[in-house]
TrEMBL record:
Xref: Pfam families: A_deaminase
Cofactor(s) the protein needs: Zn(2+)
Protein name according to UniProt: adenosine deaminase
Recorded GO MF terms: adenosine deaminase activity; metal ion binding
Keywords attached to this entry: Hydrolase, Metal-binding, Zinc
Top EC group: hydrolase
The protein's Enzyme Commission number: 3.5.4.4
GO biological process terms, semicolon-separated: adenosine catabolic process; hypoxanthine salvage; inosine biosynthetic process
GO CC, alphabetical: cytosol
Adenosine deaminase domain sequence ranges: 5-328
Family membership noted in the UniProt record: Belongs to the metallo-dependent hydrolases superfamily. Adenosine and AMP deaminases family.
Length: 330
């Protein structure tokens, strides 16, 4: 089995089907398989990012109690381990889970789920999966107060499993990345690293905004290909791009996998990584993403480069990075 690292995986878009069934059963509910698919995963005729983002409403409705969050995290991590993942950074927006919980309680429940998984993992054969969490600020109008709270919670749980921040949500002029400068200024002062979604629904200008906020990692960033001078800058600055092929096909950034420029970006010396984004919404997983790229000619040495890029970009301790590098040699 390949050893894999996912740096860009949204918790609410990756709740395993089996876990959803369990959570529904707990409430005495069930849904026919076809309905479940319709509510959780995009159909091939999904037109854009906004339609894609609609698929989060149903899973989020099941993610409003500490008990459910804890179970989801434990089961998702077990599934990822079964797929060969040795390290994952899982992101979520605590403010999306606050029907009954505070943002801090949400984060605590997620960390408890990780503890449950680690306790289970102790008895298992094979390579361990370690996981950290990134808290998403939401790129939505009217969320400033909730976003400040997320920032404070990230500081509170820093070094306890919360490894960084993200900026996520729709990408458009109204919520341009440049409007979030004060949050990332504060994050830098508190020593919290971050990544920013950019260059997905919008093009190079959104990525330049993200770079101006001081980010060293960009979620997606695939549309840098529209601007050669930006490509050069990203390569020179060693900015990591968290690419997610199936997700970009779903949101119609690309029409077919043959157009997906992952390999040519490696050739441009861009620090590219391969990730899933939303396993359940996109009906994918990381082994499948690699398989898709292998079908496009991804070589063993390119694959190794992707792994090394992920290790380098991870918001993990040096000790953890050393473990990941040693695993590659094993
Ligand atoms: Zn994402």
């Amino acid at each position: 089995m390949k050893k894999l690292i996912d740096l860009h995986l949204h918790l609410d878009g990756s709740v395993p089907y089996q876990t959803v069934r369990e959570l529904l059963a707990k409430e005495g509910r069930s849904l026919p398989e076809a309905d479940l698919r319709k509510r959780l995963s995009v159909s091939p005729d999904c037109r854009n990012l906004d339609e894609y983002l609609d698929k989060f409403d149903f899973p989020l409705s099941l993610m409003q109690t500490a008990e459910n969050l804890r179970l989801i995290v434990r089961e998702l991590l077990a599934e990822l381990r079964g797929q060969g993942l040795v390290y994952a950074e899982i992101r979520f927006a605590p403010q999306k889970h606050t029907e009954t919980l505070t943002q801090a309680e949400v984060v605590q429940a997620v960390l408890d789920g990780r503890d449950d998984f680690y306790a289970w993992q102790k008895g298992q054969e094979g390579d361990d999966l370690h996981a950290n969490f990134l808290l998403c600020l939401m790129r939505l109008v009217g969320q400033d107060e909730a976003n400040w709270e997320t920032l404070r919670v990230a500081k509170e749980f820093k070094d306890q499993g919360v490894a960084g921040l993200d900026l996520a949500g729709p990408e458009n002029e109204e919520v341009a990345n440049c409007k979030y400068a004060s949050f990332f200024q504060q994050a830098r002062e508190w020593g919290i690293p971050y990544t920013i979604h950019a260059g997905e629904a919008m093009g190079p200008e959104s990525m330049r905004d993200a770079l101006a906020l001081g980010t060293k990692r960009i979620g997606h960033g695939i549309r840098c290909q529209e601007d050669p001078s930006l490509v050069k800058e990203l390569a020179e600055e060693g900015i990591t791009l968290e690419c997610c092929a199936s997700s970009n096909l779903n949101t119609k950034v690309f029409d077919q996998i043959a157009e997906y420029p992952l390999r040519s970006m490696l050739g441009q010396n861009l620090r590219v990584t391969l990730n899933t984004d939303n396993m359940t919404v996109s009906a994918t997983n990381l082994p499948r993403e690699y398989q898709l790229m292998e079908e496009q000619g991804l070589t063993k040495s390119e694959e190794k480069q992707l792994y090394l890029n992920s290790v380098r970009a991870a918001f993990a301790s040096q000790e953890e990075k050393d473990r990941l590098l040693a695993l590659l040699e094993k």
